[in-house]
Description:
- This protein has helices spanning 14-21, 68-72, 87-95, and strands at residues 26-27, 29-35, 38-44, 48-51, 56-62, 76-81, 105-107, 113-115, 120-132, 135-147, 154-156, 159-161.
- By secondary structure, it is mostly beta strands.
- It has a single domain (27-151), classed as Roll (Pnp Oxidase, Chain A).
- A hairpin with a 5-residue loop joins β7 and β8.
- The structure holds flavin mononucleotide.
- Residues 28, 42-46, 59-62, 65-67, 94, 97, 155 line the site of flavin mononucleotide.
Amino acid sequence: MSMQSVITPDPSDAAALRGALSRFGTGVTIVTTKGEAGPVGITANSFSSVSLDPPLVLWSVSRGSSRYHHFAKAEHMAIHVLSSDQQPLCRAFSKSAHAFDEAAWEEGAHGVPLLTGCLARFECERYADYDGGDHVILVGRVTRAVLHEGDPLLFWGGSFGGFACGGDG
Ligand SMILES: Cc1cc2nc3c(=O)[nH]c(=O)nc-3n(C[C@H](O)[C@H](O)[C@H](O)COP(=O)(O)O)c2cc1C
């Protein structure tokens, strides 16, 4: 039988739980909004679809992030699903809210910065927010979605990679 690890979540060792959670593979997004002093963005993999009617999506923002206040009170935001060639952008927006110099973008409705060349983009208006412990869960109502052809950027086990088609399943 293969090795297994058992983890009892312990705040003094968040890395252990994070390691277990990282067994769940995700896509990667950049969420943007209009900050008080200009455009702001953040790399986020907590994105998830929620509802088709009404059209709702969610992501969660860390209360500990220096960008928390921008997103916690934002009435409008855009969620960008990254393509495999956008890993530099993912890194740039994990380090800084102001990495727009490295991105191709334009200003959209309500001053929300829209990144171009993403696999999908969801323009959202604030719908609800919920306490999520050290994060806040933000639910947005999708007002417009844009799709492009391309390959996804995926995140699993703390590493970035691509999609390997496993056949017909
Ligand atoms: C792959 C990846 C996924 C991330 N997902 C989230 C997320 O869902 N929510 C979040 O608040 N921060 C997330 N972060 C962290 C933020 O991008 C950012 O690094 C963090 O808010 C620290 O920013 P600060 O230095 O401005 O405080 C993620 C980072 C990476 C690299």
